[in-house]
Amino acid sequence: MGEMTLAFIEEQYKELDKLNDKENPAVLTRNISTGELFVRKALPIGFAPVIQQLQKLSSNYLPKIEIMIPSGKYLIVYEEYINGKNLADLVKKYPTFDPSEVTRLMLMLANALTELHANAIIHRDIKPSNIMISNDGILKLIDFDASRVYEVGKNQDTVNLGTIGYAAPEQYGFSQTDVRSDIYSIGVLMLELLLGKNTLPNQENITSLEKIAVRAASFDPDKRYQTIEEFRTAVKNDSLGPTFVSELSDFASFDIPMEEPPEVFLPWYRHIPGFRTGRTWKMIVAVLGYIFLLVGLFSEPVEGVKMTHTENFFSNFFLIVPAFVIFTNLCGVWKKLPLLKSTSFIIRAVGIPIYIFICILFSAIFNTLIS
C-alpha cells in the first residue's frame, strides 16, 4: 500500500533539479496541477516523529511540510520550497552584519524555535546554511535532518548529530540534548554575524549584544539562557528602539538581488489531465477517455425517458463534468475541498467517491426537476 501511495503521489510532481550532492539528494519539484514548487527529501525512517510534529505546525518561520510518506527504510517528504537567499551565501558576501540586522535575524530565529520547542522539537543543527531569507524578508529555519523529539527522563541521545563549531558540546557527550543546545548554536551564530567567523569579542569593549551571544554560547548549559523565550526577551530589550523590535519588518538594509524561482515552460496541452506527465501511454488513455466523455455528453436520451436533447445534454453535463474535475484534480481543485485537500492518501481515496456520489445525486435531482 505504501509503495502504491508513493507512486500515486510522485505522479503529481515533476522533478526539476537536484539541490545537493548527497547520496539521497534533495530534489526541487513542481506540482503538476498547481505549479507550486516543493523540495522532495528522502530521510531515514527514524525521523518520522519529528516530521509528523512539523507537519502540524503553521509558522511564518518554518517551511510547510506538504506530504510525508514512509517507503521502506526512508521517509519521503515534500516540503515548501523557500525562494530567497541562503544565509551562508550572505555571510560570504557580508563578513560581518550590522547589529540591528543581527537583532532582527535573532528575533525571527527565536520565533521559529519558539514553535519548535513548544512541540518538544530540538533542531540541533542551527548554522548559516540551514537558514534562508525569503524574498519577502522573512527568516526561515530549514533542514531538520539532525532534529529530534525531546524525551523527558532520557539520559543520552541515540544519535549524535550536528555541525562542528555550531553544535553544543553536549551533542558529543553522554547527556541528552535539550532546548539549551539550540540556544548554544544561536550564540555561536550571533558571534559569527557580529564579529566574523572564529572571532571572540574584545572583553574591554564588549557590547551588550555580544554579551548576550557569549552567554548563549556558554560551554555549561546551566549558564546559558534556559529557554528561547528568555533569550528572545534579552535580545528584544537590548534593541535600540522600536524599529528593531518589530516582529520583523522587512529585511531592507541589505541591497540583495533575490533569485526568482526556476521557470519551466510547458506546452499548453501539458496542463490537460492525462498529458501533464508527458508519458505516452497516459496520453493515449486520456485521448480515448475524452472521446468516451464526449460520446457520453452528446448521447441520445434513454428510451422511454421523456427528455429533449438539450435537457439530456445538461443532465449528462451535471454528472460527467463535475465528476471529471474531481477525479482528475483539474486546476488543483483538491486544495479547496474538504477531505481531498488532506495529505493522507487514505482520506483522499475516501473523499473522491463521496464527491462522485454527490455529482450523481445532483444529476438525479436535475433529472427529477425536468421530468
Protein described:
The protein is α+β, with helices and mostly antiparallel strands. The protein folds into 3 domains: 2-80, 2-Layer Sandwich (Phosphorylase Kinase, domain 1); 84-244, Transferase(Phosphotransferase), domain 1 (Orthogonal Bundle); 270-370, no CATH class. Helix content is 39%, strand content 13%. It contains 10 helices and 10 strands. It has helices at 2-10, 48-56, 87-93, 99-118, 179-195, 208-216, 228-238, 280-297, 309-328, 345-370; strands spanning 13-18, 27-31, 37-44, 65-71, 74-80, 84-86, 121-122, 131-134, 139-141, 148-149. The protein has a 5-stranded antiparallel sheet with strand order 1-2-3-5-4, sandwiched between helices. The protein has a 3-stranded antiparallel sheet with strand order 6-8-9. Strands 7-10 form a two-stranded antiparallel ribbon. α4 packs antiparallel against α5, α4 (99-118) runs antiparallel to α7 (228-238) and α9 (309-328) packs antiparallel against α10 (345-370). The longest helix is centred in the C-terminal third of the chain and has 26 residues, at 345-370. The two termini are 45 Å apart. The relative contact order is 0.10. Mean pLDDT is 79; it is low at 148-161 and 240-266.
Topology at a glance:
Blueprint: H1 2-10, E1 13-18, E2 27-31, E3 37-44, H2 48-56, E4 65-71, E5 74-80, E6 84-86, H3 87-93, H4 99-118, E7 121-122, E8 131-134, E9 139-141, E10 148-149, H5 179-195, H6 208-216, H7 228-238, H8 280-297, H9 309-328, H10 345-370
Antiparallel strand pairs: 1-2, 2-3, 3-5, 4-5, 6-8, 7-10, 8-9
Helix pairs in contact: 4-5, 4-7, 5-6, 6-7, 9-10
